TrEMBL record:
Keywords: Hydrolase, Nucleotide-binding. The keyword Protein transport does not apply. InterPro entries: NUDIX_hydrolase-like_dom_sf, NUDIX_hydrolase_CS, NUDIX_hydrolase_dom, Nudix_hydrolase_domain, Tetra_PHTase. The lineage of its organism: Eukaryota, Metazoa, Ecdysozoa, Arthropoda, Hexapoda. Belongs to the Nudix hydrolase family. GO terms for biological process: AMP biosynthetic process; ATP biosynthetic process. Signal peptide: none annotated. This is Bis(5'-nucleosyl)-tetraphosphatase [asymmetrical]. Residues 1-133 form the Nudix hydrolase domain. The keyword Hydrolase applies. GO terms for molecular function: bis(5'-nucleosyl)-tetraphosphatase (asymmetrical) activity; nucleotide binding. CDD domains: NUDIX_Ap4A_Nudt2.
């Protein structure tokens, strides 16, 4: 059975710059990733994305707007086993919302695409973020 995780690529616009929320894991090589997590039995993909984003970042569904038509699926192996990760783009709409990390993460950053691509370890995640930036610009969401 393939493990499936879902989450959101959350962005905000500050001083006309698009910034993305990345979380640094507290395990393994401490890689940087958008909020995401594994599906629980009986959950839909979207329910998982909302739950995991809240658990990992403290952000609530009212804090951001999800663009369901900007959905991307990543397929890769973890320890020799296939994994699927589904992301949707989301815009932070509550500028007073505070990120509150769970025990699964040790740090967070809001980074431009260029800076995010420097800290993100995996090419699949860099491509994901570049695709999100293209969507944001082509739909005038910034």
């Amino acid at each position: 059975m393939v493990k499936t995780a879902t989450g959101f690529v959350i962005f905000r616009t500050i001083s006309n710059k698009i910034e993305y929320l990345l979380l640094q894991t507290s395990y393994g090589v401490n890689h940087w990733t958008p909020p995401k997590g594994h599906m629980d039995p009986g959950e839909t993909e979207m329910q998982t994305a909302y739950r995991e984003t809240n658990e990992e970042s403290g952000l609530k569904p009212d804090d951001y707007k999800v663009y369901e038509d900007c959905k991307q699926t990543l397929n890769y192996d973890v320890k020799g086993k296939p994994k699927i990760v589904i992301y949707w783009l989301a815009k932070l709409v509550n500028d007073k919302a505070e990120v509150k990390l769970s025990h699964e993460h040790i740090a967070y950053k809001w980074l431009t695409l260029q800076d995010a691509c420097q800290v993100v370890e995996y090419e699949e995640t860099r491509t994901l973020m570049k695709n999100c930036e293209e969507y944001i610009k082509s739909h005038n969401l910034a």
